[in-house]
Amino acid sequence: MMQDLRIPSISRGPKITIFVNARETFAYEGETVLAALIAAGLRTLRMSHDRREGRGPFCGMGVCYECLVSINGRANQRACMTEVEDFMEIRIDGPKDM
Amino acid sequence: MVRKTCDVAVVGGGFSGLVAAKILADRGLRVSLLDENIRMGGQVLRSLPWSGDSSMSRGLRRHGLRLIDGMKRKPIEVLNRTKVLDIDEQLGLLAEREEKEIISVAPKMLLLATGAREKFLPFKGWTLPGVISTGAAQILMKGSGVLPARKMLVSGTGPFLFALSAEFLRNGGKLVSVLDLGRLREKLFMLTQGFYHFSKVMEGLSFLAAIMKARVPFHHRTAVIEARGCGELDTVVAAKVSRSGRNIGGTEKIYRTGCLAVGWGYTPNIELPQRAGCGLTYNSNMGGWVVRVGNDLETTVDRIFAAGEITGIAGAQKSINEGELAAYGILKKLGREVDLRRLRILERQRSLHLRFGICFNKLHKLPDGAFPAIPDEVTICRCEDVKMGDIRRAVNEGYDTPAMLKRALRIGMGNCQGRTCAPLIYDILSTLTKRTAEDIPVLSVRSPVKVVAVRSFLRQQ
Q1: Is the Cβ–Cβ distance between B429 and B409 less than 8 Å?
Q2: I need a surface site. Which of A64, B182, B348, B392 has the fewest CB within 10 A?
Q3: CA atoms within 13 A on the CB side of B423
Q4: Model confidence, pTM
Q5: What percent of chain B has pLDDT over 70?
Q6: Which residue among B50, B143, B415 places its CB closest to the CB of A13?
Q7: Which of A2, A22, A13, A21 is nearest to A85 (CA)?
Q8: What residues 234-273 of chain B have any CB closer than 8 A to a CB of chain A?
Q9: CA dist B143 to A12, B46, B391, Å?
Q10: Contact B140 A48 (CB under 8 A)
């Protein structure tokens, strides 16, 4: 596990459990799925539609649809526009084995 | 389908929408406030629910967080996580709520306050994971309390680069460098124009001071020419840029970083106003295509008003001002009394905000040669993987409008529906075909305006 990217001075909600490609990790209530994935050290979230290039988050505000992941079995959800929930199952389509 | 009626529907819960909703509700009107995001506040007022305490914040932020708190107490129907999909001729809104149900809202009056998004200047490798927008970097920190990376390089143009850099440093990040395509002289000139906006000038200087204090090198007239990495970003190549926008050979510099934040200013979210038939105007000093409004902020469509960044990019203060102005415009239209003296003060203030907007947007002006200099292998439409070379070839074959390029290459037909590449396509076409930006017709927008799951419709049966 790499160094946590969470800013220490910020007060957070309760710690919760999420699963990324079936692997257990943690997050805090109130964070977006994107923030939790980045804090877990992930950058590639999916492959591009035509050339199958790795892509990661870009606009962070729901405009670009680059951070699409599968959440609780629903494909193509924007990680940046979804809040984490306890026991949420996230699937990403990156080259890294996470 | 859940059908709702109200006096005024406000689309967009940023500063403009919040201010307008409060004033209208205070006057006894039934207001529905719709926003796509998890929480109200737009891009400026993001915060974690546990740190977004209005008593802890100062200035603008405190004002905004109080407005958000106030929404709970007022008879305003707050519809967050609600994507507006279309607007019909009677101002009826079709929307998807919480990714699961379709609703309709039938208001007497409509206020559009859909805000802005970032503009980009593509370079080789800008699609690599690890390259993010400056907005994304800030939203991660403000909205979720997470650094985009331990180490980050910031590049693009305009004062926001410095705001982001200062915030990143304050949160304990290691800032590699700040590379601004703009010129220092322009910035200094703008400072002299900032007389009416003393607080903004001081804010800018405080960002600069934070960067200098951390001994982070910043370079002007410098741009990223390539982001490299095997699957993910690890190296950034930057170079000095000539006045005409070309890279100067021999000035290349290499930075090792896994995160690069880029941004070149802002452009209004005009898709919903377009669907509603609102007239647009092109004004490069206001961020590109903006919604045309009269003095009361009514658009060219009867009973539809617009406020905030969509009438011209000028920041939070203008959005607050226009939220109030639009609320009075709506009250007037409904035959209610409004304080004419207050109205005149607001109108005067608005012209000052617009003046600031012109200065602000001028700082983001790109050199004429910037777009023609994009190499063929650079991706322009990220959703459909369309490259600059594809566009050049198509333009040479005579496909010289955005709509023709869309048919020929599928640009703007992916998930984001051209939100990222359309503003780029307008600039590219204008420079490649030597036409003014006003002469490039905007892409038409179809319903649904945002991606919606079929299951949301099916559930209603």
Answers
A1: no
A2: B348
A3: 26
A4: 0.95
A5: 97
A6: B50
A7: A13
A8: 258
A9: 11, 5, 37
A10: no
